[in-house]
Structures are given as structure tokens and as C-alpha cells.
Design brief:
The protein has one domain (29-253): Undecaprenyl pyrophosphate synthetase (3-Layer(aba) Sandwich), CATH 3.40.1180. The protein is 48% helix and 14% strand. It contains nine helices and six strands. The radius of gyration is 19 Å and the shape is globular.
């Protein structure tokens, strides 16, 4: 039994190494976005409380950052908590917020963040989050504001429609105050008012969704117009390097047309 197990592990490692070489030698991705789905179903499958799935999922994020750094991915955007998620049970929401506080507090002193000059940003309606979490987010953003080697975005209290509406209202207000000429409004202008405006590359090359669901759920509705999509059957807490490599490899063999 042990011999068979070790054989499987060895085969897995060989396949992972082969994929790594293929991906490293293939077309480069600048921006990867991930819908980290399946935390609750992972916990249910293991007969555990839902928030334990969220905790394991949050730990998986730390591995992801290391992998993306090694692959030279400069922009990483993670769908962490949607506006609709506020409809969940109060106990679950409270636990999610506690996990988020723990992770953002860790980011403040995370040696990897500062060594690699990672710019951390939360995109979404941060004002809807607990005040203590808002303060931690603000502290992390201020601490990393001048970093630009890599960009890490957490879509928290996020909704794609809300983002577009917010940008539209801001632009309308500027037009009303004569701060912006309506004839000057084009796609480039509009993008300056999106949550992702702080990044040179707002549009993901690849959007990955875990858990087997095949929809965007309002994620980066404007920015994803020409993104390639990869839907994986694995639940987010079980997401492995090999899953990331397979998704990237699939992206690399596609021919992107951008509407042509």
C-alpha cells in the first residue's frame, strides 16, 4: 500500500515538473484572476463547519502567491467575498471576517510582501466591512502603497455591477460640475474610475473558477471582456500547483482573438 502511494506521489511530482517546464517556456501571463469557490462544499464534504473551509481556503491563498511569484505573474486578483455573500448566516459571516482580520494582520508584517514589493489593494465596498477590518485594510494598503513589483488585489464586498454603477455615478457627477466634458468620455476614461484603476493592466489574461461552477458571478464584468476562462472541478481549499499549471497551460495553447 505504501509503495503504491509513493509511486502515485512520484508520478504526480514528475507531471508537475513537466507542466512547470512547459508553462515557464510558454507565453507569459501578466494578470490572473481567481474566483475561489467551493470552501463551504469542501467543509460539508468533510463534515466540518463552513468557516473551517474558509480558513483552509485562506491558507491556500498563501501558496498561490508563492506560485504566481515564481511564474512571474505580476497581477493577481482574487474574488474573496461578494456583495451577495452578506446574505449568508450571520455566524458564518462573522467567522469569515475574523479570518480576514487574521490574514490582513499577517500581511502587515509578511516578509514576502515586503521583500517582493507587493502592492496590496482591496477592491469593493470596503465601507460595508467591520470597522476593525477596514482599519487593517487601510494599514496594509498604506504600508504597500509604493510597491509595484507585483499587485495583489482582494475583491472583498465586491460586485461587478456595483463597480460599474459607482464609476458611472462618479463620471456623471464630474460632468455635472463641469470637471469633465461628456465628449471626452471613452473606454480609457471610464476605466480610470473602476476599482482596478490603480493597476497598469486591469484586464485579466486568465480567469480561473474552482468548484466546477461555470459562471463569473459578477466578477470583473468590465475587465473580463476578452479574458480566457478556465473552470476547474477542484474545491478551492484543495487547489494545488498542478491545478494552476494546467489552467495556465490550457490558456497558453488557446489562440486569443479579441473579437476578431
Amino acid at each position: 500500500m505504501l509503495k503504491k502511494f509513493l509511486s502515485i506521489i512520484g508520478a504526480y511530482k514528475l507531471y508537475e515538473k513537466w507542466l512547470w517546464i512547459q508553462v515557464k517556456n510558454g507565453p507569459k501571463l501578466e494578470h490572473i484572476a481567481i474566483i475561489m469557490d467551493g470552501n463551504r462544499r469542501w467543509a460539508t464534504q468533510k463534515e466540518q463547519n463552513p468557516w473551517l473551509g474558509h480558513k483552509k481556503g485562506a491558507d491556500t491563498v498563501e501558496n498561490l502567491l508563492d506560485w504566481c511569484g515564481q511564474l512571474g505573474v505580476k497581477f493577481v486578483t482574487l474574488y474573496t467575498f461578494s456583495i451577495e455573500n452578506f446574505r449568508r448566516a450571520p455566524e458564518e459571516i462573522e467567522e469569515i471576517m475574523k479570518i480576514a482580520e487574521e490574514k490582513f494582520r499577517k500581511l502587515l508584517t509578511d516578509e514576502r510582501i515586503h521583500r517582493n514589493k507587493v502592492h496590496v489593494k482591496v477592491i469593493g465596498q470596503v465601507n460595508l466591512l467591520p470597522e476593525s477590518l477596514q482599519q487593517l485594510i487601510s494599514d496594509v494598503e498604506k504600508t504597500t502603497a509604493n510597491y509595484n513589483n507585483q499587485f495583489l488585489n482582494f475583491a472583498f464586498a465586491y460586485g461587478g455591477r456595483a463597480e460599474i454603477l459607482n464609476a458611472t455615478k462618479t463620471i456623471a457627477k464630474k460632468v455635472k460640475l463641469d470637471e469633465l466634458n461628456i465628449n471626452e468620455i471613452d473606454e480609457e476614461t471610464f476605466e480610470k474610475y473602476l476599482y482596478t484603476a490603480h493597476m497598469p493592466n486591469q484586464e485579466p489574461d486568465l480567469i480561473i473558477r474552482t468548484s466546477g461552477e461555470e459562471r463569473l458571478s459578477g466578477f470583473l464584468l468590465w475587465q473580463s471582456a476578452y479574458s480566457e476562462l478556465a473552470f476547474l472541478d477542484v474545491y478551492w481549499p484543495d487547489f494545488r500547483l498542478i491545478d494552476l499549471l494546467r489552467a495556465i497551460r490550457t490558456f497558453q495553447i488557446r489562440k486569443r482573438r479579441f473579437g476578431t
